[in-house]
Design brief:
This is Probable multidrug resistance protein NorM. By secondary structure, the chain is mainly alpha-helical. 80% of the residues lie in helices and 0% in strands. The chain has one domain. The chain has helices at 14-44, 48-61, 65-85, 88-122, 128-143, 145-160, 165-186, 202-226, 235-238, 243-251, 254-275, 279-315, 319-346, 348-353, 359-372, 375-392, 396-420, 426-449.
Length: 458
């Protein structure tokens, strides 16, 4: 049933609407990124091997994010377009199916991941301390994978309904929980005090993360059950599968999921090549990854807000507004990342020192930060324009851009640098910059072709 909705995202100043949707998301992700950085700081106090172990596990773990990405990307276009059309009944069903279907997929993924984790870790390192740290950190994260996937779903659903503030509050609550529990679980005494801790090491860091994830899911799920946020889900609806919707959840985001798989496999190969330079370089890359994610959070805030607005605009058949939203998103991301790049170029050593005191790791990480963070300016612009693909459900350009930039550009460059010419690790970092520039070019071409303008999934 379609009904007229009081949807403010489809009227008024689009820049104001975009920032209204994006800033709360950015703030939520910002605090989450602060936690990630604090987490790595605490892990860095244990040893370089602990940092390397968590880095390797995180790289492997993100392989299962393919499944989350497929269903999550599909749900963005399905929820936002149906809501933009005023079809609240279909919107409710899509939200319910997203939660149920994603949880089932996560259970299957967790079983496979638990069986194959140790052999996968052996692909990267034979150092027992590094492998043990990865296992200590990894198994509990895998066990709680369904809750993690579902916590993403409730936040996505709320944003697609035009409510960006609630996910922000949820993420803030989860991050604060994480920040408090981390040192309490990891060390014998809470740092700087006489308060006794559990002294669980990297396992404690993982335990703090899963507890905060449970908190986040519980809050968001409760909001959707109460129905205060425009759509009310039912428990009954969560215990039945609707193949018509589930098929769309699998297929619409499939190109995006394959893109994430492609990107993650490229990351695995990259980490394998980086491991040739030694544990210190792997540890530096792990720290750089946390910094990279921290810088990436504002981009994600803008893109999530933009994708929601684009989807609702396409549901209401307002293509011009969808275009203007994406262009402003791309420009905003490029300028924002340009400012962060200047900071990274000027203060690389200081940024590394936040995480670790090992002078060898710091020295390796300096050039990495100066090169990899500026690459985000290109990536941010590409993702801003690419919000039209997530909003419309036309996700093939994401796949094409990833395949070409990662496998056609970055991996061959890294192979040449490490195996053929035996160059310094700086050339590995440069490959990120070149690949992101290529990705931006491909996304721009796909945006200009305009296939997404006529794509509907509802």
């Amino acid at each position: 049933m379609n009904e007229q909705l009081d949807n403010e995202l489809l009227t008024g100043d689009l820049r104001k609407n975009l920032l209204k949707m994006s800033i709360p998301t950015m703030l939520g992700f910002f605090l989450q990124a602060v936690y990630d950085i604090v987490d790595m700081i605490w892990i860095g106090r244990i040893s370089a091997s602990a940092v390397a172990g968590v880095t390797i596990f995180s790289t492997v773990f993100w392989m299962v994010e393919v499944l989350n990405e497929i269903i999550g990307t599909s749900s963005i276009s399905l929820i936002s377009q149906n809501y933009g059309m005023g079809n609240t009944e279909k919107t409710r069903k899509v939200v319910e199916q997203t939660l149920t279907f994603k949880a089932l997929v996560a259970i299957i993924a967790a079983v496979f991941m638990a069986f194959f984790l140790e052999p996968l870790l052996g692909f990267f390192t034979s150092e027992k301390e590094v492998v043990q740290a990865a296992l200590d950190y990894g198994y509990i994260r895998i066990f709680f994978l369904p809750i993690m996937f579902s916590s993403y779903s409730v936040n996505t659903a709320l944003r697609c309904l035009g409510d960006a503030k609630s996910p922000m509050y949820i993420m803030i609550a989860a991050a604060i929980t994480n920040i408090i529990l981390d040192p309490l679980f990891m060390f014998e005494y809470f740092p700087g005090t006489n308060i006794p801790g559990l002294n669980l090491g990297v396992f404690g860091a993982a335990l703090a993360t899963v507890i905060s994830t449970v908190v986040a899911f519980s809050i968001g799920f409760g909001m959707l059950l109460k129905g205060d946020k425009k759509v009310k889900i039912s428990i009954k609806g969560l215990f039945s599968l609707d193949w018509e919707i589930d098929k769309k959840l699998l297929t619409i985001g499939l190109p995006s999921g394959i893109e994430i798989l492609s990107r993650n496999l490229a990351s695995i190969f990259t980490l394998k090549f980086v491991s040739l330079y030694g544990t210190n370089t792997v540890a530096a890359m792990g720290i750089g990854g946390r910094l990279f994610n921290f810088a990436f959070m504002p981009i994600m805030g803008i893109v999530m807000g933009s994708s929601t607005i684009v989807g609702q605009c396409l549901g209401a058949n307002d293509i011009k507004r969808a275009k203007d939203t994406a262009k402003f998103s791309a420009l905003f991301n490029f300028v924002m990342m340009g400012i962060l790049s200047i900071i990274a170029i000027i203060f690389p050593k200081q940024l590394m020192k936040i995480f670790i005191d090992d002078v060898n790791v710091i020295e390796v990480g300096k050039s990495m930060i100066q090169i990899m963070i500026p690459a985000l300016a290109f990536g941010g612009a590409a993702m801003g324009l690419g919000s039209v693909f997530a909003g419309s459900g036309h996700n093939t350009p994401f796949l094409l851009s990833s395949l070409v930039s990662r496998w056609g550009v970055q991996v061959p460059l890294i192979f040449l640098a490490t195996k053929v010419f035996h160059l310094s690790v700086i050339y590995v970092w440069i490959s990120f910059l070149v690949a992101d520039a290529m990705e931006m070019l491909i996304v721009f071409i796909a945006y200009k072709r305009g296939t997404w303008e006529n794509k509907r999934v509802s």
